Predict the 3D structure of the following.
Amino acid sequence: MSAEASPAARATALRRQLDAAAHAYYVLDRPTLSDAAYDQLFRELQALERDHPELADADSPTQRVGAAVGASHLAKHTHLVPMGSLDNAFDEAELAEWEGRLRKLTGDAVATAGYCCELKIDGAAISLTYRDGALVSAATRGNGSVGEEVTANVRTIPDIPRHLAGTGWPSLIELRGEVFMTFEGFERMNAERVRAGEPVFANPRNAAAGALRQKDPRETAKRPLRFFGYAFAVPGAAPLPFRSQWELLETLVAWGIPVAPARRHCASLEAVHDWARTLEREIRPTLPFAIDGGVVKVNALALQAELGVIGGRVPRWAIARKFAPDLAETTLLDIEVQVGRTGALTPRAVLAPVEVGGATITYATLHNFDLIAEKDLRLGDVVQVKRAGEVIPQVIGPVPERRTGTERTVSAPRRCPVCATPVVRDEAEVAISCPNVACPGRRLEALAHFTSREAMDIRGLSHQRLEQLIAAGLVTDVADLYALTAEQIGGLERFADRSAEQLVTAIAASKTQPLSRLLHALGIRHVGAESAKLLARAFGTMAALTAATVEQLEALHGVGRTMAEAVHAWGHDPVVRALLARLAQAGVRMDEPQAAVADGPFRGLKVVLTGTLPTLGRSEATALIEGAGGKVTSAVSKATDLVVAGEEAGSKLEKATALGIPVIDEPELLRRLGR
Ligand SMILES: [Zn+2]
């Protein structure tokens, strides 16, 4: 591309493209380019300007940091000291180069001072101004020198203290950090937006930035925003209670400002490399929020001051150690339809292989066909794909600017792709499904779910092996598994005698799994692993559960009408009853062991219930407390540990108060139960 255009034309094209992407990103909060694609174009432009100094232009995106502060409803805020932006190191070699430059500049002093390594939170940078310990204003980064005032919105973020705790804060200080959303908060918010018919946010960062710039702080308050601090600015040479970045972070914690976890003080470049590797491979996948790398800072503030900033913006003493991008662009080649164990038909995107977050992906989940229509995904589209924190990559959406007109729309299938039975659509749900209970596609997934680790946990049965067992006519449903012999399995291709025996042993061992796992394994509609536990604890045995009425089921806290009806219908289905009878005959356990029940937040506590609780019935509250390890008794005595009181609690409450026994209400009870 660049080889054909003149350098000047190419520079113009790049600047236009980068400007448009920055506008979409910062002002509209709707990114059109992936970070990786943006970085690539940005670096190409930088290289071009370096090789052709005559092309220099003060308006070039390479000369700016962050957003243009354009027409906006928000007031301007001039930062005490400009908010810088970081140079990037994309690999160990680039990081080593940076470290080498610092050594030269400081005569190896950096090597003694060491480095403070922190997470690079993928959020929106803000600056909080505290005067005499009180939060007086908050502003976005804006163009680095001038940001937008978002004080009212920031005051709604629970992580950010209105008054600093502790002592020793300078009378005027700007504390900088990142406002972000956890994956969970982000998913929840997007799900709500889908329900409300509003457009979804592409990623937690854009959602956080958008929330900060809301006109109405009440809207911001609804967004699950979090904050981590990592930098400061003071006017002139104010005395400071810290001398290093590491001490700053500790001081922030003492002042009540949250600081990101997983930071490390590294004495050498090798230790920094090691930290970055651990961060990318081990820490990042466990974090509940997005990061796009780590930040390495010269630890000593005196050295930081000595090293200074380039062009007033980019500090020499800090660098972002970027990871392989977790957002990438690729082509949507096809949409496959998978048949789930309940018959649900789920679309799956087949992608041109692309590297995202350090792994090559070729498939991504699409959830349901409504979402495909909503996102207007078409075959042949260039799409953005994300893989961050989650195991399953997701398609964020198409890049409509990249369409050529040859893309084709996709519609939901009318027939099951495995057994060709016409699909049914549940009006209450967005899912379409294959209603054929004997569908081979459903059978395989049902077996795979039954044997999975969270369910009956039978090791050694891959999809492929289950397919073999089905094809050989040995297994048609889960009860058949318990009739398998080592001889039968050993006769199959690629099964060694030893592995056949191991498999039979593993299947037999699964018979002792508790009722909660069996319920989850059997795949009742609307019943997940947690609900299965709740039902098993409340009813104790399969017989009691299948005999329960819809009302009894619905009376349980955590069970809604839909689930109650689904469980009831399941328990009265003759096919299910026959299957349960065969499982019981095979020796599969049908109750919940007490040992599994006795552990919990109320372990060993004697609890008395009194009065009418706002939502919980007495038997339900008893079941919940006993499920959490407690014992519910009827009379208050000195042996009582806790009283749960509702409306019109009478003499028991008086007695508890007289004896000094702690009394809680239903909300507190539910909180302690983790509900
Ligand atoms: Zn089917």
